[in-house]
């Protein structure tokens, strides 16, 4: 059995710079639709690398395969995001403050794990496997620490955006800690209650 170690903050920070030329993949953002789908497919593969505990550096982009994967995964994610939009709209209809509260709670405690689960399994149903959220309850302290580390890393890369490298680094590591936690607790069976 492979043991996935908890990734350190410094290792997560260094990760995108291990293969710095591949940060240029972020330029695909300027290519509407096609570039976005390629990057989406690439991000799915990247998150799977994180789940499996592989942090050698940014993986090589495969334009056609990543485009196909990005398009397929995008279509499969639509039902979830439609339901999510309806929930947010209904919550905001009740009151703007309530809508904002629901948005924050879903964005911190629900969406990250469900998104990693979805990108791992790539089925429509996997975005609705709410039992995965037992991790938040069972490992609440560790989950909060993981989320705080993710926000801190994002903030650092946002500051580094002033020298341009921060945006692609942020884009390619925006789920690194959650995916690592998922790999340790779900993939390797550390949580027998799931």
Beta strand count = 0
Overall 3D shape: globular
What is the terminal-to-terminal distance? 19 Å
Radius of gyration, in angstroms, nearest whole number: 17 Å
Q: Major β-sheet, in short?
A: none
Identify low-pLDDT runs: none
Organism: Methanosarcina mazei S-6
Pfam families: DUF4013
Transmembrane segments: 23-48, 69-91, 97-118, 155-179
Keywords: Membrane, Transmembrane, Transmembrane helix
Structural overview:
By secondary structure, this protein is mostly helical. The chain has one domain. 65% of the residues lie in helices and 0% in strands. The protein contains 9 helices and no strands. The chain is globular. The two termini are 19 Å apart. The model has no long low-confidence stretch (mean pLDDT 92). This is DUF4013 domain-containing protein. Keywords: Membrane, Transmembrane, Transmembrane helix. The chain crosses the membrane at residues 23-48, 69-91, 97-118, 155-179.
């Amino acid at each position: 059995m492979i043991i996935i170690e908890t990734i350190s903050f410094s290792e997560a920070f260094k990760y995108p710079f291990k293969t710095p030329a591949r940060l240029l993949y972020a330029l695909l953002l300027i290519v509407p639709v096609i570039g976005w789908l390629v990057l989406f497919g690439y991000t799915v593969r990247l998150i799977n690398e994180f789940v499996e505990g592989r942090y050698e550096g940014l993986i090589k982009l495969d334009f056609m395969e990543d485009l196909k994967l990005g398009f397929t995964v995008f279509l499969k994610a639509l039902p979830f995001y439609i339901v999510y939009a309806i929930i947010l709209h209904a919550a905001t209809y009740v009151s703007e403050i309530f809508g904002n509260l629901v948005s924050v709670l879903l964005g911190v405690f629900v969406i990250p794990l469900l998104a990693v689960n979805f990108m791992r399994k790539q089925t429509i149903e996997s975005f609705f496997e709410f039992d995965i959220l037992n991790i938040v309850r069972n490992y609440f302290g560790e989950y909060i620490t993981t989320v705080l580390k993710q926000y801190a890393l994002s903030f650092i890369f946002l500051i580094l955006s002033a020298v341009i490298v921060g945006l692609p680094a942020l884009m390619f590591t925006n789920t690194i800690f959650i995916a690592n936690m998922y790999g340790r607790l779900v993939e390797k069976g550390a949580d027998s209650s799931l």
